Amino acid sequence: MEEEIEVKISIPKTLYEKLVKEAEDTGFKDIREFIIYVLEQLVETSDFEGEVMSKEDEEKVKERLRALGYID
Amino acid sequence: MMRVLILGFDALEYELVVKWKLKQLMQKRYGAYEAVKSPKYGKPHTPSAWTTIITGRLPEEHGIDDWWTYGKILDWIRTKPPLVWIKNKRKILWKLGIRPRLHSRKEIKVKTIFDLTPRSIALFIPGYNEPVEPHMKLNEAIKKGINEYIKTIWEVHRWRVNTFLEKLNNDWDLFMVWFDIADLLGHVCMVKCRKELWKAYLDLARLVGIVKKKTPEDTLIIILSDHGMKPMPDGTGDHSEYGFWSINKDLEWFNPKKAVDFYSLIEKALKM
Ligand SMILES: [Zn+2]
Predict the structure, then answer these.
(1) B10 C-alpha to ligand 1 centroid (Å)
(2) Is A56 a domain residue?
(3) Which of A28, A41, A71 sits opposite B139 (nearest CB)?
(4) What is the Å distance from ligand 1's center to B33 Cα?
(5) ipTM of this predicted structure
(6) Domain count, chain B
(7) Is A2 contained in some domain?
(8) Domain count of the fold of chain A
């Protein structure tokens, strides 16, 4: 396992409480594991680089949904 | 008798669950299985796929192969000349006052898992008892643009979650519920707005956590999708050829390979 360093940061209490609950419900061992997970996703995966959807993209989505019988 | 809870997460994609390391969705044992193809669409399609899961029969046998129906006769005439040549049939029929309705259990030609026990609850199941209102709402929302559509998908999802958690308190031996968020957002966001899709997956994982707290330990929880979601060259997402499954117990015999396998696996679990 990679070496870890200890970082001390303060976060708002309500946020902390939310994160504790979220970590538990989503199946993470503890808040530490959950925070590392979210930050890793944010920094390391390209899945988080949001593209802006153009009008053309919107039309393609509508075409797809129409072809599957979701919308008229 | 073992209680069985089936969380139907439409289009939950195996590859994404693994990539995003969502242990809560993977549970104790998980895998992928071959999704059933819709004869009409030539690829996995939601209503026929779920009906196969709850009946153990192929679409040709169970009789459901689309969301909407105008009734047997009109459905049949629509596929034959000269009506088949006419475009925008739905709009024309709508103007004539002829409205389609969603398929329902009356049209399923065979037994379903809900016939296996008198204490069964089916909530929002496509092809079986899906309510029409979410479809109408989403249909209206997309006319106002993609952002309104995404907002409405989340609204519908929250409504489904709340309704489900209320019903979970009832007495049951078999409970199955269906959520469409991974499918709806998958079509929109598989390529262009993955973060939104990740949020949806995380929300489903959280739902599993909440459900686990609310159900007795001896309940078998099956998480199931009817097909996955794959990125398409046009920037949208489309149904992939395999579905996802997972269970919260170490049952070695639970090894679905095809969509038709679930019926007997659920039957076996209920008898345990
Ligand atoms: Zn589906």
Answers:
(1) 5
(2) yes
(3) A71
(4) 14
(5) 0.87
(6) 2
(7) no
(8) 1
Minimal CA separation from A70 to chain B, in Å: 8
Domain check: are B186 and B243 in the same one? Answer: yes
pLDDT band at A50 (very low <50, low <70, confident <90, very high): low
Domain residues for A41? 13-67
Residue A28 counted as domain residue? yes
B151 lies in the same domain as B239: yes
DSSP β-ladder status, B220-224 and B242-247? antiparallel
Interface test with B, best of A34, A35, A58, A61 (most B CBs within 10 A): A61
Residue B157 and residue B177 in one domain: yes
- Smallest Cα–Cα separation from B185: which of B7, B8, B10, B6? B10
Q: Provide the residue type at B90 as one letter.
A: R
Spatial contact of B38 and B31, defined as CB atoms under 8 Å apart: no
Asked whether residue A1 is domain-assigned, the answer is: no
* pLDDT > 70? residue B98: no
Chain A environment of B21 (Cβ under 8 Å): 37
Chain B neighbours among A 36-65 (CB < 8 Å)?
37, 41, 45, 47-48, 50-51, 53, 57-58, 60-65
pLDDT tens readout for residues A1-32 = 789 899 899 999 999 999 999 999 999 999 99
Question: Are the beta carbons of B256 and B262 closer than 8 angstroms?
Answer: yes
Same domain, yes or no: B19 and B92: no
